[in-house]
Design a protein that fits this description.
Strand content: 25-35%
Number of strands: 12
Shape: rod-shaped
Largest sheet: 8 strands, mixed
Order of helices and strands: HHHEEHEHEEEHHEEEHEHEEH
Low-confidence stretches: none
C-alpha cells in the first residue's frame, strides 16, 4: 500500500530535481522528504532515484513508476474535490422522522419549502410516537415532549406553552368551569397520552403558584395532535393544547377554540431536533437551520 505523502514527495522531487526546492514546496524538512522517498523505494523494493551532483533524477524504474504515482494522486484529489462539493451542495437523499403529534403542523410547510428550494434533494418522511422507533439511518428528526435517552444528538429549540381549551359549542352546552375544582367535573381530551399515566395535571398561576388537578380519564386519547385538536373542536371535552397551534388555527377558524381558566397555565411541552453526532452533510445542516428559524422566528 502506497503512502500518499511518499508519493507526493517522489513526484515533487522528480519535477523539481532538487530536495531543497521540493521540501520548501511541501513544507517539510529535507530529512523528512528524503526519508519519504526512501520509504517508497523500500515499498517498491528497488531504487527510483539517482543523484548527480546536486540534482535528483528518476532512474528507469522511477520514470516508469512516475505516471502511475501522478495518476494515483490525481484520483485522490478528484475524490477530495467531489466530497468537498457535496459539503456545499444540498442534494441526495435525506431521512426525516417527525413526531406523530406534529403531523399536519408547521413542520410540513417547512419540508415542502425545503423541497421547493432544493430540487436535487429527496426526502423520506416517516412518523414516530416513541424514541425507540427512530431508524439508525435517520438524518434529522423532530420530537415533541419529554425525551428519553437516545443515540442521537438532541437540541432543545423551545418549550411550547400550553393552556386549557374547549370548543365554543362545548362551552355553550356545558358552561365554562370557573375554578379548578369545577374542571374535574368536565370531560377531558387527552394530549398524546402525556397525562394518561398520571391522573393529575399541574397548573400554574402567578398568584397561587402550582396546583395539582385531578383530571378525569379521557375517553379519547391519540398520538396525533391534529386529531386531539379536532376532538376538542367537536365538543368531546376540554384539552391541553399548545397556544401557538391554537393561534395558527384561529387564522382560518376564528373562535372555534376558547381558552378555559385563562389565568392558569398548563405544563409546557419541549420541542427537540435530533440528528447524528459528528460532521453533518450540507443537506442536513440546511434543514436544521430552516426548522430552527421557522420555529424561533
Amino acid at each position: 500500500m502506497y503512502d500518499l505523502n511518499d508519493l507526493k514527495s517522489f513526484v515533487s522531487v522528480v519535477e523539481t530535481g532538487n530536495l531543497s526546492a521540493s521540501a520548501k514546496e511541501l513544507g517539510v524538512s529535507k530529512s523528512t522528504l528524503s526519508r519519504r522517498v526512501s520509504h517508497l523505494e523500500s515499498v517498491m523494493r528497488q531504487p527510483l532515484m539517482r543523484r548527480q551532483a546536486n540534482r535528483m533524477f528518476a532512474n528507469d524504474a522511477g520514470r516508469a513508476f512516475l505516471p502511475f504515482a501522478q495518476s494515483i494522486l490525481e484520483t485522490v484529489n478528484r475524490a477530495h474535490r467531489t466530497v468537498d462539493e457535496l459539503k456545499e451542495t444540498v442534494s441526495g437523499k435525506l431521512s426525516f422522522a417527525i413526531f406523530s403529534g406534529l403531523s399536519r403542523s408547521w413542520v410540513n410547510r417547512e419540508l415542502f419549502r425545503y423541497l421547493e428550494q432544493y430540487p436535487d434533494i429527496n426526502v423520506d418522511v416517516y412518523t414516530i410516537s416513541k424514541v425507540e422507533e427512530l431508524k439508525d439511518t435517520t438524518d434529522v428528526a423532530i420530537w415533541m415532549g419529554p425525551l428519553q435517552d437516545t443515540t442521537f444528538k438532541s437540541e432543545l429549540i423551545g418549550n411550547m406553552s400550553c393552556s386549557l381549551y374547549a370548543s365554543k359549542h362545548y362551552i355553550e352546552r356545558f358552561g365554562a368551569p370557573q375554578s379548578i375544582e369545577e374542571l374535574e367535573q368536565h370531560d377531558c381530551v387527552n394530549l398524546h397520552n402525556f397525562y394518561s399515566n398520571d391522573p393529575t395535571l399541574s397548573l400554574y398561576n402567578e398568584e397561587s403558584g402550582y396546583r395539582e388537578v385531578a383530571m378525569p380519564r379521557s375517553r379519547l386519547t391519540t398520538d396525533l395532535l391534529s386529531f386531539q385538536i379536532d376532538g376538542v373542536v367537536n365538543g368531546r371535552g376540554i384539552g391541553v393544547i399548545p397556544d401557538e397551534m391554537v393561534s395558527a388555527r384561529d387564522k382560518h377558524h376564528p373562535g372555534d377554540l376558547v381558552k378555559v381558566l385563562p389565568q392558569w397555565q398548563a405544563p409546557s411541552i419541549p420541542l427537540y431536533l435530533l440528528y447524528s453526532y459528528g460532521h453533518l452533510p450540507r443537506r442536513c445542516q440546511v434543514l436544521l437551520q430552516q426548522l430552527k428559524k421557522a420555529y424561533l422566528g
